[in-house]
């Protein structure tokens, strides 16, 4: 094997070599397909060779726009082995958005579905110098040089929503990612007999655990496509059929499985770990899941894309019937350090609200070509680089962090600070609410209008009068929503989080 020997590559090099005859990946589509570690090694090598033959150098960037597949995994591994960094995007995202991302970070090559190549090429701001057919309906595009110099040790760039309306690229080094993967193996007993889910798309940071923790363990990874991953009645049987032992997703997906997956009809006895991250898990849905899947250990992981997971909390065996508050996000992981700042610079007292900041091996070095945004997010203290998460927490008596909400989802109303997440948490306590989201909009009379979007059991919802009465019993007057809107389901982003921007447009 050629390429760099450190970081992520070091984590999967030995299994590729030593477990050559064991199954590495399983893909469900029209037919079930699988590849061994040896076959995956050969396909990654072929992609690496294609990159090098067309001038891709260590430190370059390579775009990955394929649907989740064996070929997309081989492309990612081949990119890393060539010493380049991969830039994954949603294969179903608008071509204009994907072209912006590829142009923004100056990818030297991009692998795309053959049928989607023309649309992407039309939006790119650079000429295509050549193409290379990879099979499996994949085409490798070689582009004229773009902006940006080679960056040493860069492993991947994940683009997230930007406050300016344009995506921003979070740069992650090999050590950033590898430190997180090594920590997961310290916490969990993972090995070659484990069978992992790959539910998150590769442009979402949850995929880092799926891909590299499974390869490092020498286990088997089940590739779940985006469309399949949102159909609970199709998704749930896979868990049983494939005898998955490790599951990782957002709580939204697990809630979908609880409500519509008929989990009582499937055998999930092989599951050892259920891991969730990315958003708050309402206790009533978590309680229902644990009743259906009582055997696994459950972990709530927290961390932004810029740091990956930085705190962890193991959920108790039993979720009490009267518990309505979400569980803590937990204690600091061993590969990082955290602080809570009450005013941006001063450490908060125990129990005092403040912004969670993080330093250590997994913290990003910044955003691609956005020095001002990087300067806002990162600061130096005592010779270390700290990242401002923007999340407000408190520390409880046991040393666990309690997530309060996003600082940027706080609004002022009638002179009071209002956290929209607190309104959502209250609405989730209603026994018939399946999903809840709150957005704030400018209002000429009150300054801020709050709109609540709700999804109900069986689609039946109470009258506005009854809803107002419920809110009056659970929230102070200044936090009660002005309007309520009822939907079959909340719109989601490509990473299965609530799409608040779309909700604002619907309000």
> What is the radius of gyration computed over CA atoms, rounded to a whole number of angstroms?
23 Å
Poorly predicted runs: 1-5
* Count of domains: 3
CATH architectural category of the largest domain: 3-Layer(aba) Sandwich
Counting DSSP E segments of at least 2 residues, the number of strands comes to 27
Label the structural class: alpha/beta
Please give the largest β-sheet: 5 strands, mixed
Q: Please list the strands of the largest sheet in the order they lie side by side.
A: 4-3-5-7-6
Q: Number of DSSP helices?
A: 15
**Helix content range of the residues, please?**
25-40%
Per the CATH scheme, the topology name of the largest domain is Rossmann fold
**How far is it from the N-terminal to the C-terminal residue, by CA?**
54 Å
Which percent band covers the strand fraction? Answer: 25-35%
The top-level CATH class of the largest domain is: Alpha Beta
Shape: globular
What do we call the CATH homologous superfamily of the largest domain?
Answer: ANL, N-terminal domain
Q: Residue-averaged pLDDT, rounded?
A: 93
Q: What does this molecule look like?
A:
This protein is an alpha/beta fold and 507 residues long. It has 3 domains: 37-173, Rossmann fold; 230-404, ANL, N-terminal domain (Rossmann fold), CATH 3.40.50.12780; 414-506, 2-Layer Sandwich (GMP Synthetase, Chain A, domain 3). Helices cover 30% and strands 29% of the residues. It contains 15 helices and 27 strands. Strands 4-3-5-7-6 form a 5-stranded mixed beta sheet, covered by helices on one side. The chain has a 5-stranded mixed beta sheet with strand order 12-13-14-15-16, with helices on both faces. Helix 2 crosses helix 3. The protein is globular. The model is unreliable at 1-5 (pLDDT under 50).
């Amino acid at each position: 094997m050629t390429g760099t020997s450190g970081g992520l590559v070091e984590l999967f090099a030995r299994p590729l070599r030593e477990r050559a005859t064991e199954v590495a990946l399983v893909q469900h589509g029209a037919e079930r397909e699988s590849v061994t570690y040896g076959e995956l090694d050969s396909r990654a090598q072929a992609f690496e060779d294609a990159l090098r033959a067309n001038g891709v150098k260590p430190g370059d960037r390579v775009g990955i726009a394929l649907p989740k597949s064996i070929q997309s995994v081989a492309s990612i591994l081949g990119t890393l082995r060539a010493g380049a960094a991969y830039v994954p995007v949603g294969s179903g995202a608008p071509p204009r958005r994907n072209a912006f991302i590829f142009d923004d970070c100056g990818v030297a090559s991009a692998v795309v579905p053959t049928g989607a190549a023309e649309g992407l090429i039309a939006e790119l701001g650079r000429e295509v110098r050549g193409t290379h057919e990879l099979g499996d309906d994949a085409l490798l595009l070689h582009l004229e040089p773009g902006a940006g110099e080679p960056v040493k040790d860069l492993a991947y760039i994940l683009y997230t929503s930007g406050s300016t309306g344009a995506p921003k690229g979070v740069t992650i080094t090999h050590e950033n990612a590898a430190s997180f993967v090594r920590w997961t193996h310290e916490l969990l007993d993972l090995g070659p007999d484990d069978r992992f889910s790959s539910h998150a798309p590769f442009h979402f940071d949850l995929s880092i655990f799926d891909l590299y923790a499974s390869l490092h363990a020498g286990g088997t990874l089940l590739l779940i496509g985006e469309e399949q991953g949102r159909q609970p009645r199709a998704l749930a049987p896979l868990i049983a059929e494939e005898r998955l032992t490790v599951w990782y997703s957002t709580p939204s997906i697990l809630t979908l499985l609880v409500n519509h997956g008929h989990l009582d009809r499937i055998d999930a006895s092989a599951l050892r770990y259920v891991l969730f991250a990315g958003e708050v898990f309402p206790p009533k849905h978590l309680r229902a899941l644990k009743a259906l899947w009582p055997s696994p250990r459950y972990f709530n992981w927290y961390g932004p894309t810029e740091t990956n997971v930085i705190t962890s909390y193991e959920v108790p065996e039993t979720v009490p019937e009267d518990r309505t508050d979400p569980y803590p996000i937990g204690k600091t992981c061993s590969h990082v350090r955290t602080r809570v700042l009450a005013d941006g610079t001063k450490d908060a007292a125990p129990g005092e609200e403040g912004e969670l900041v993080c330093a250590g091996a997994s913290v990003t070095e910044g955003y691609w070509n956005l020095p001002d945004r990087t300067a806002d997010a990162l600061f130096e203290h005592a010779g270390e680089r700290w990242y401002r998460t923007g999340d407000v927490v408190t520390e409880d008596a046991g040393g666990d962090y309690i997530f309060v909400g996003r600082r940027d989802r706080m609004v002022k109303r009638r002179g009071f600070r209002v956290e929209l997440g607190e309104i959502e948490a209250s609405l989730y306590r209603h026994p018939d609410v399946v999903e809840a989201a709150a957005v704030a909009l400018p209002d000429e009379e009150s300054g801020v209008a709050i709109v609540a979007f709700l999804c109900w059991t069986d689609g039946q919802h109470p009258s506005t009068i009854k809803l107002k009465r419920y809110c009056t019993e659970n929230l102070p007057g200044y936090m009660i929503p002005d309007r309520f809107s009822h939907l079959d389901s909340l719109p989601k982003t490509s990473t299965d989080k609530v799409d608040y921007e779309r909700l604002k447009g619907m309000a």
